[in-house]
Amino acid sequence: MVDKYKGIAAISGVLVMLSTALAFYLLFENLFDVKIQWISLLFLLLSEAILMAKFLLIRKQTIIADAHISSSVIHIVLVFLAAVLFIVFKEEAAKMFILINVVGLSVLIIADLLIYYTQCHTAENGGEQMDAQKVLYHCISQVQQLSLRHKGTSFYTDLCRIEELLKYSDNTAITGVETKIGELISELSTLLSNENVDSALIYTKTNDIAATIQERTAQMKHIKRGKY
């Protein structure tokens, strides 16, 4: 969240908390004489402080951020409803009210932790996918350049086959084989630049690259099975 909006959120949060305290003070003449009343005020202020803290900690508006805010808003509403019910109908049931609020806070914390875990997991997968896409795109680019350079030669078909294998490779994760593929393509490029090289070496290298890509495909299937 931008700094100026953080300032607005902080001021708004403080005003809301002051308004809540003032409302309780005006509604109840002997606010601190009745245990359930000041305990209700305490839990309401705590839930509002948690909401304000979330506003201050959120850096940008996302679905995950909305989930964090929504969980606190729901928590505040439930605390308020519980406070009204206990003040009106069960003034002496302070222990039960405290227990309910402690459970409510626990549920809120667990919900926020689950949301945070989802956020981290999504970000990690997204970053890994971007890394895989960059590596594979670089490999495809290299092979395309080789294909254009050696179009019409006996190696062109094998180069096109490698390009197709790379294009249709799963790019949602890194397996570790990508580096090996890149190295093999670089070695192939070096061989192709040598006019006196034995054709058998080039065919062996193209077969090695194709086999390594297929090895990566098998590893990706294993990774997918592990995720689900």
UniProtKB/TrEMBL annotation:
Q: Which domain of life is it from?
A: Bacteria
Q: What is this protein called?
A: Uncharacterized protein
| Segments traversing the membrane | 7-26, 38-57, 69-89, 95-117
Keywords of the record: Membrane, Transmembrane, Transmembrane helix
